[in-house]
Amino acid sequence: MKKISRRLFIGSASIMGTGMVLKPSSIWAVNRNVDVKPALLGGEKTVTKPFPRWPFVDTTEEKALLDALHGNGWGRRVKNNAADTFETSYANLLGANHCLTVNSGTSALFTMMGALNIGPGDEVILPVYTFIATYNVVALHNALPIIVDIDPESFQIDPKKMEAAITKETKALVPVHIGGSPFDVERVLEIGNRHNLPVIEDACQAHLAEWKGKKVGTFGIGGAFSFQESKNLNCGQGGAITTNNRQFMDACMGYHHQGAVLSDNPYAEGGVRGGNWRMTEFQASILNAQMTRLEQQAKKRSENAAYLSKMLQEIPGIAPAKLYPGTTNSAYHLYMFRYDNKYFDGMSRARFIEALSAEGVPCSGGYGQMEKTARVPSLAKNRHYIKVYGEKGMKEWLERIQCPVNEKVSSEIAVWFTQTILLGSKTDMEQIAEAIRKIQKFARDIKNA
Ligand SMILES: Cc1ncc(COP(=O)(O)O)c(C=O)c1O
Predict the structure, then answer these.
(1) Residues whose beta carbon lies within 6 Å of some atom of ligand 1
(2) Is the pLDDT of residue 223 over 60?
(3) Which domains does the chain have, with CATH numbers?
(4) What Å distances lie between residue 271 and 51, 77, 257, CA to CA?
(5) Is residue 206 a contact partner of residue 177, using CB atoms and an 8 Å limit?
(6) Of 90, 239, 246, 419, which shows the fewest CB atoms inside 10 Å?
(7) Which residue among 226, 227, 231, 333 is best mutated to probe the pocket of ligand 1, counting the most ligand atoms within 8 A of its Cβ?
(8) What's the predicted TM-score (pTM) here?
């Protein structure tokens, strides 16, 4: 018979004594043994089974691909193609009037900025805590990316700092629903309206996330989605623009299609600038197949995230990233939480990540300091930028984009799990919490080993 620990004994005794029914979060706490040696110190891993592989694939994808292979054409055709089918079903699912497929999330952002005619001399505001693509698209339009700091509790753009960064040169706000959780939609929209500035939602990580029951990507002038392979909806590479604004959709259509109007005549003149950011039929057919599982997978992530949060909240020094009160659903592309080393004997976040990974829980520290990565300061020396903004202007820009809150969050506090972990079982979630408790218990030994 397995030796019963004192904690387990006391726990079971009190349950038996009172006849009390324990909530799930309490059950795991009394039933699991966190007194055994952590994996990093030579003990056994807490999680021995790998988390689900991503993406899920079956004959639905195989058939869709073969249909595209033998269909009407491999590129974008006007009617009855896989891209049309996807655009209609994705727009319906989101409650958006229009959807346009493009070949990546980067292209979705780039196209929308092109449609707004953003260019040299303009400023575009974005959060520091995002994938570098949000910054790159502004620089590709030769506009000035104005990077602003974050709310340390949610890791989302700080609306107050966003507003403070607005100048007469600002032409668009590009807040990001980072991790798939909505930024403070109401405050951001209110600021956009008050300053008469279009809001482009970077929803590249936020498929099916909701604010007050309405899907993100439908609030601003347009929403950008990514279907790159790590994303909750994926076709290897791909993207989409969603909007309720017909005129804006037409402008995006032209910009992504060599400045033409997408019609029966592939060369119909639109009279605007543009390039080729179109999606192929292979990408669209995979998306149509993956769409059959999207809602059910989203539900599972949300349920697991809620269960995990309930358990992690009970651990001193661990706090799931704050969701704003308007959030009715997070896409949980990332499960992000805050680590406070005061409750772990001063153990660094890097060591905590090492210890948790050793327990069989893949995790990372997430994004770093965007404004310090080589591509950002180098823009201040770019001759085209110096021509438009002057050397002094670019020096001042470097000062404007420093983000001290993010410096601390990204170097000491943030810890991430990726969305595939949330597709695991309830037991997996319990084991994650168990692994963290174990690390906490042995923090001093792990730190000093
Ligand atoms: C927040 C954010 N914006 C933009 C992008 C760019 O999307 P893609 O990789 O499809 O170009 C990504 C995806 O990685 C992202 O996470």
Answers:
(1) 104-106, 130-131, 133-134, 176, 202, 204-205, 226, 228, 239
(2) yes
(3) 10-53+294-366+410-448 (3.90.1150.10), 59-290 (3.40.640.10)
(4) 51, 21, 11
(5) yes
(6) 246
(7) 226
(8) 0.92
